[in-house]
Amino acid sequence: MPRKEEIALAVSSSPFTALSTKIENGTAHAGVIGLGYVGLPLAITLAHSGFPVTGFDIDPKKIVALDAGSSYIEAVTDSALATEAGQGRFRSTSDFAGLANCDVIIICVPTPLTKHRDPDLSFVEATCHSIAATLRPGQLIVLESTTYPGTTDDVVKTILEKTGLKSGVDFFLGFSPEREDPGNRDFQTSTIPKIVAGDGPEAGQLMQAFYGAAVKTVVPVSSNATAEAVKLTENIFRAVNIALVNELKTVYSAMGIDIWEVIEAAKTKPFGYMPFYPGPGLGGHCIPIDPFYLTWKSREYELPTRFIELAGEINSAMPRYVVGKLAEALDMRAGKALSRSRVLVLGLAYKKNVPDIRESPSLRLIELIEERGGRADYHDPFVAEIPSTREYMALKGRSSVDLDEKTVRSYDAILVSTDHDGVDYAALAKWSPLIVDTRNIFTKLGLAAEHIVKS
């Protein structure tokens, strides 16, 4: 329950002044909705800065794990979780009625695409309806989920204002794009510069004050739509450049030129060049999805997004290209058709050293191999079993196989999709009769050999 002095402050002050005071003195209660790769690290960072934090999630398994002091996100250690929970600064729940007690509510829920590559805002909309059920004056509502420009002001604001309360008068609305990079130990939530924006000047001031108390560098921009566009621009930049090197890979391969050697030489130029690397396709929640939020929104203005759409086509075609190279290598080097081969896919996660399989090209690789009659298994030290996914339900429940000599030798080929550290690549080079490497890991480790083919 609110303390007497808090009630008095709310009565005697405007919603803006009351909330500003709470943020300034560190008593603002933060609620983080969605305790995944973005929400949980943010919640613990806010708690560490001194704010009382409640994490909300619809998945009861997450709540049980957190209550037991067990973190399921690499960026949050069990000890960090225990410290903030033990100090009373962090708790988790699936009871959304508790949102009424939160002064700042941050939305960190998924924003996937439909099968037609249209934005799916169902999670955001459902969350906003939950917030609206207990919305009160003096709250700051923040969207962190990646989306198209205009979502915060047009979708979130519309739902919340149906309560009769007004943004910028009764409650405040902002957008701050997440910038998490799973597996990257060089940056933490508190050290990654934070883009912030608000619906009106007072919301903008609250956003700067709140995030500035927990994050080292805050970068304010003029509007929520601008902040939304910043996030899309970052990921479109990556998607287009990855598509470029993936296309160059196919062209240079036909010419007998090693794309990785080209990139290593090109990046010695100290200006005007930034290295991007090819792979088996795009994975993760951001790069394969976010660009199409802008593509969808651009239709409203009758403007084409040809670079984005072409990049999507090239990157989406990479798994099929890789399986084609695998079939070619099996035929030429082993004299065996893919339809009669057993293939071990190395790495199920979309990037190395994380357990995240969202949009992972490895799932598509397995599917394509089996569509052509082959048998595909996988090994991943971070993913013991394939969980339920929206697109690959037929693969659910398959388990990671061991990498002992007997097992490896039982496969006709290894297809390297994810170059996790900690794998004994030297042993694999010795045991496997054929390796198709999409990450150039064997060359990096000085293990290049005749039976190791780059793709």
Describe the structure.
The protein contains 16 helices and 13 strands. The protein has 2 domains: 4-225, Rossmann fold (3-Layer(aba) Sandwich); 238-454, Rossmann fold, CATH 3.40.50. The longest helix is centred in the middle third of the chain and has 31 residues, at 224-254. The termini are far apart. It is 40% helix and 11% strand. With 455 residues, it is of the alpha/beta class. The chain has helices at residues 4-12, 15-25, 39-48, 60-67, 78-86, 122-132, 151-161, 201-212, 224-254, 259-266, 291-298, 306-334, 361-371, 405-409, 425-431, 441-444; strands spanning 30-33, 53-56, 90-93, 104-107, 140-143, 172-175, 194-198, 218-220, 342-346, 375-379, 413-416, 435-437, 452-454.
What's the topology here?
Elements: H1 4-12, H2 15-25, E1 30-33, H3 39-48, E2 53-56, H4 60-67, H5 78-86, E3 90-93, E4 104-107, H6 122-132, E5 140-143, H7 151-161, E6 172-175, E7 194-198, H8 201-212, E8 218-220, H9 224-254, H10 259-266, H11 291-298, H12 306-334, E9 342-346, H13 361-371, E10 375-379, H14 405-409, E11 413-416, H15 425-431, E12 435-437, H16 441-444, E13 452-454
Helix pairs in contact: 2-8, 6-7, 9-12, 12-13
